[in-house]
Dithiol-disulfide isomerase
Amino acid sequence: MDKLRKTYNIEIKWRAYPLQPDVPEQGLPIARLLEEKGLLVTPEQVTANLKATAQSFGLPFGEGKMIYNSRLAQEIGLWAQACGRAHQFHDAAFKAYFVDDSNLADKTVLLDLVASAGLDGAQAKKIIDSRSYADAVDRDWEKARELELVAAPTFLMKGQRLVGAKPYPVLEKMVAEVVGEVQACL
């Protein structure tokens, strides 16, 4: 018989994470980044692994030949969260970056994402121009260093940590363990 499922009310809070913060705004070819880091993996292997992971979750994934600086997108993401539109913005940013290979450091790209997430473009332009969420991103990056985070996504719950994209049942098991409940089977 089917497993009984417990419903959990979990608040998800998006946090900024320093994803390749030294990459210039115009981006870098992934091959160059791998070479600079001395990694013995080809861009094709990286893309194939990411595509396989995305496919296992039913997510689209493009060719991913470039890596871009996501700092400004993280600032807008925190603003989107303050506006109650974090999920919409992050979904749009995911598609733009991982499917369309768009540069998330480009202000025009960000303003398009803001519009697609149902946010006010004029307000977003002010946020971008003033960099009013820069300090919030700095605080998140510092917290990431304190917690010794090494990858995104990372889920933290009451001292437990789940690193990387995982199938839903793995996250569900973590939640059940954290709240001290055991899944019952009929």
The first strand starts at residue 28 and ends at 29. Strands lie at 28-29, 66-67, 154-157, 160-163. The mean pLDDT is 88.
